[in-house]
Fold this protein.
Amino acid sequence: MRTLLLLARASILGASLLAGNAVAAPADPAAARAEMVRRIEAEAAATGAVTGVARLDPRVLEAMREVAREAFVPAALRERAYGPGPLPVHPEQNLADPFLTALMLHLAEIRPGDSVFETGTDTGYQAALLVRLGARVTSVEILPELVVVARRLLADLAGDRLLLVEGDGYNGWPERAPFDAIIVKEAIDHLPPPLLAQLAPGGRLVLPLGPTDGVQHLTVVVRRPGDRLELRRVLPVRFAPFQRGGRT
């Protein structure tokens, strides 16, 4: 079943490959990105009856054609940069499956000028996509070694368009709130009150909601008039658990 394939792809991998022997990037990265996008479009069509999203936002797909994913992948995995499935960037974090990245960005409905918060920067690939979509991005990463990597890779984007900080993403970032969209890239079994408090009217929160040791559901939460929260389950997934602690 398609869902089982997605669950298998999103499982956390155990070993860090941040270091290792360099492997050549795809011979034609632009062609590899185009093929990745074609595969994402096919997967969206195949899962549309479940997700309700048979066609993804073309702006998201265009961003994924343009941002060099191989730059955010450990050297030993560069040949797999545009393939399906997650890629480990740290013993505790993965770069998400490209289809899930595209789906979450689609569900977040990013518009130019939106203020967006994300947890789990990892090496910074999704942050780069968000900036490419025209968002003003606040990205929080709890692992200091990944903050160092992401800051190096995203140095050209630093400034008002992108604030990259080390800390506990559970608490959001009140100084830049409210946020038009919030994307949580780790499994959590409840809706974090600090993030809900920082979600703007009409704002969208996208997260894998459910038991951290089992199957979650990719869920969209929208703040409706009267402070009413509307929840929609989209797809069964399996993400690594939300990490707590660190600086805030």
Observations:
- The helical segments are 2-9, 29-51, 58-66, 98-108, 125-132, 144-153, 193-197.
- The beta strands are 87-90, 93-95, 115-119, 136-141, 162-166, 179-184, 199-209, 216-224, 228-237.
- The CA atoms of residues 63 and 132 lie 6 Å apart.
- Residues 1-23 have pLDDT under 50 and may be disordered.
